[in-house]
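SAMPLE LOG
Freezer: B-3
Tube label: C17
Construct: single chain, 102 aa
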Amino acid sequence: MPTETPKNFAPLDRDGVFAIVRDQLVDILETDPENISEGQSFKDDLNADSLALVELVDALEEALSERTIGFRIEDDDLADLKTVRDAVDFVYAHVVAHGQKG
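STRUCTURE (predicted):
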């Protein structure tokens, strides 16, 4: 059985980050991708409770750990993530600031 080879990823742009956030929300909230847009509030529009947000953080950390050096969302940062746009902006800013693995 061959060993796993390192994965090469194309650099993430903001649209790519949105796609990752949306795809994770689709799985967590069991909804369709077209039901998620950047302007939506996690709580008011998507009915995401605190457990769903913790699941989102875990999923994003896992999804981005192979692509971005040291990607982590701290508990203090989670309090600032009220909308899908907030999450996309946070992740994208981290990707730009900390670089991506090639």
